[in-house]
């Protein structure tokens, strides 16, 4: 008898997969590149932004952190040796602050992104198996 597909079963499977993969990605990035997964997400958001810089408020929305947590994350990456980010005041609104990748930050991000993508390929399997999420619900 074939199991019926229930949305809650699918959600639980996705959540279980997520809770297994996130710590592995974080450990790889921390161990090899000395950046957390959230820091990687910030570097990726800045790198992918249509301008070479991004307002910290916008970055916090992209990464899913509060503005104060994002400000602390940006400060850490600016103080890292070598600095991965540099920030400057918004000329239109002095309260605003922009940040951008340094040359070292861009280089580290591009290298880390390769490991990130390779790790995801290994952990998650082929795209075909992910497209068929229904299979996850039939375990």
Provide the domain count.
Answer: 1
Helix content: 55-70%
Please give the alpha-carbon distance between the first and last residues.
13 Å
| Biggest sheet, spatial arrangement of strands | 1-3-2
CATH superfamily membership:
Winged helix-like DNA-binding domain superfamily/Winged helix DNA-binding domain
CATH structural architecture: Orthogonal Bundle
Number-wise, the strands total 3
| Overall form | globular
Tell me the strand percentage band. 5-15%
Structural class: mainly alpha
Question: Residue-averaged pLDDT, rounded?
Answer: 87
CATH topology: Arc Repressor Mutant, subunit A
CATH class: Mainly Alpha
**Whole-angstrom Rg:** 18 Å
* Main sheet makeup: 3 strands, antiparallel
Order of helices and strands: HHEHHEEHH
Number of alpha- plus pi-helical segments: 6
Which regions have little confidence, pLDDT < 50, spanning 5+ residues? none
Report on the structure:
The protein is mainly alpha-helical and 139 residues long. It has a single domain, classed as Winged helix-like DNA-binding domain superfamily/Winged helix DNA-binding domain (Arc Repressor Mutant, subunit A, Orthogonal Bundle). Helices cover 63% and strands 9% of the residues. The protein contains 6 helices and 3 strands. It has helices at residues 7-33, 37-48, 56-63, 67-79, 103-124, 127-131, and strands at residues 53-55, 85-89, 97-101. A 3-stranded antiparallel beta sheet has the order 1-3-2. Helix 2 (37-48) crosses helix 3 (56-63). The protein is globular and about 60 Å long. The model has no long low-confidence stretch (mean pLDDT 87).
């Amino acid at each position: 008898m074939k199991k019926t597909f229930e949305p809650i079963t699918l959600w639980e499977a996705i959540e279980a997969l997520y809770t297994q993969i996130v710590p592995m990605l974080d450990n790889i990035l921390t161990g090899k590149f000395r950046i957390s997964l959230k820091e990687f997400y910030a570097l990726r958001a800045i790198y992918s932004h249509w301008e070479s810089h991004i307002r910290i408020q916008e970055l916090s929305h992209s990464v899913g952190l509060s503005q104060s947590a994002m400000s602390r994350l940006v400060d850490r990456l600016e103080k890292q040796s070598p600095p991965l980010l540099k920030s400057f005041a918004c000329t239109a609104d002095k309260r605003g602050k922009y940040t951008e990748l340094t040359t070292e930050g861009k280089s580290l991000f591009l290298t880390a992104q390769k490991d990130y993508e390779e790790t995801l390929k290994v952990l998650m399997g082929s795209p075909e198996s992910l497209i068929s999420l229904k299979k996850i619900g039939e375990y």
